[in-house]
From TrEMBL:
It comes from Hephaestia caeni. Coiled coil: none annotated. The keyword Cytoplasm does not apply. InterPro entries: NAD(P)-bd_dom_sf, SDR_fam. GO terms for molecular function: oxidoreductase activity. It comes from the Bacteria. Transmembrane segments: none annotated. Keywords: Oxidoreductase. Belongs to the short-chain dehydrogenases/reductases (SDR) family. It holds the Pfam family adh_short. This is NADP-dependent 3-hydroxy acid dehydrogenase YdfG.
């Protein structure tokens, strides 16, 4: 039985991917700081899952969780580096603690998963590291500068490791979703009483169902593209970044305010 370990598995994309892979008969490991949410995810899966309450910033917790999961599953076919948070607003008004937390979870947490997970993936032929990037990694999003920067870093890491780990038989992929209907959109926008969800809706941008992201994750793991774009916004931005960069720049200068 193939096995996938998913961070950010207590809700949103992580939960949907757990359900998608469980439906294909995979063994599931889910990790998150939200123990109650993890329990809800496990209860939704037909055969349950191995559950780990952990913070992706904690390297010792990474080692303990992957040791336990691979000991029980006997293998690690996919490590899904998905945990992330969203905080928006003008950079000049951002709280430094929020900036540090955003970078530590969204990028350092992914680095931790990649660095520590490599040995487990290398022991399973044909394995895959899957990372969650964002449409904000296509062109930096005004009002989401630090978030965009972390997702650009995740995208670059995916490209670099796909080359670096090829000799070890490990594929590296990322999903690049637009705005997805998940609790991440409930994050606040600095300097206002708005959430990211409010800002997205006011900008007239689409919200993509989380199930579409789960299907994209399945396709990414089994496909040959490093980047898999998910949802209308991400696909339009990818097209514009390539063919209409001036128009995209003008749009981003207006910002999400």
């Amino acid at each position: 039985m193939k096995a996938i370990f998913i961070t950010g598995g207590a809700s949103g994309i992580g939960r949907a991917v757990a359900q998608r892979f469980a439906a294909e008969g995979w063994r599931i490991g889910v990790a998150d700081v939200d123990a109650a949410g993890l329990a809800e995810t496990v209860a939704m899966l037909p055969d349950g899952a191995d559950s780990y309450t952990m913070d992706v910033r904690d390297r010792n917790a990474w080692g303990r969780s992957l040791d336990d999961f691979t000991r029980q599953a006997g293998r690690l076919d996919v490590l899904f580096n998905n945990a992330g948070i969203g905080v928006g607003g003008p950079l000049a008004e951002a709280d430094f603690a929020d900036l540090d937390r955003l970078v530590a979870i969204n990028f350092t947490g992914v680095l931790n998963g990649a660095r520590i997970g490599h040995a487990y993936l290398a022991a399973t032929p044909g394995s895959c590291l899957l990372n969650t990037a964002s449409a904000s990694a296509i062109y930096g999003s005004a009002g989401l500068a630090t978030y965009s920067a972390t997702k650009f870093a995740v995208r670059a890491l995916s490209e670099a490791l796909d080359g670096e780990w090829a000799a070890a038989g490990i594929k590296v992929r990322d999903i690049v979703p637009g705005f997805i209907e998940t609790p991440l959109l409930d994050g606040g926008v600095a300097g206002s009483n708005h959430t990211i969800r409010d800002t997205v809706k006011e900008a007239g941008l689409e919200l993509t169902p989380v199930e579409a992201v789960a299907d994209a994750a399945w396709a990414a793991v089994h496909g040959d593209r490093v980047h898999t774009y998910v949802g209308p916004t991400a696909k339009r931005m990818a097209f514009a970044a390539r063919w209409m960069p001036g128009k995209l720049r003008t749009m981003m200068r207006r910002g999400l305010s």
